[in-house]
Amino acid sequence: MIGVTDTEDHHAEWSFPAEPDAVHNARSAVRGRLGAWGLDSLGDLAALLVSELVTNALRYATGPIGLRLTHPCERDGVLLVEVSDSLPDLPRERVARPEDESGRGLHLVASSAHRWGIRPCPAGKTVWFELAVPR
After folding, report:
1. Crossing angle of the two packed helices 43-60 and 21-36, in degrees rounded to 10
2. How far apart are CA 85 and CA 103, in angstroms?
3. pLDDT on residue 6
4. To which H or E segment does residue 5 belong?
5. DSSP state, residue 91
6. C-alpha span between 113 and 131 (Å, rounded)
């Protein structure tokens, strides 16, 4: 892990080097922060979706991978998760064929998240998703 920043207990940010252990470290960071926020019920799904996005960043981009969580109290009852990388090319959701070894990550995000999207940034892009907090 390159660095972590917490601000006012409503946001958490990490930066991971583009190395294979980034996926494991990102999952652990998400589960840990959600546990600290009392949002354990979102941990497995959030960690799974983060794994998919960090894996995509490792596969296609270079440089550090950013991860940011925004607490639901700041977002009207939804957890916001953002994964950033340095590649400006925007990913596309596609439907993988049964024999395909990859290509299911964004489809999984789209079908599991409350909302999701992609935002171009000056130094790459950010893929984000929201998860509704169970009541």
Report:
1. 150
2. 18
3. 54
4. strand 3-7
5. P
6. 5
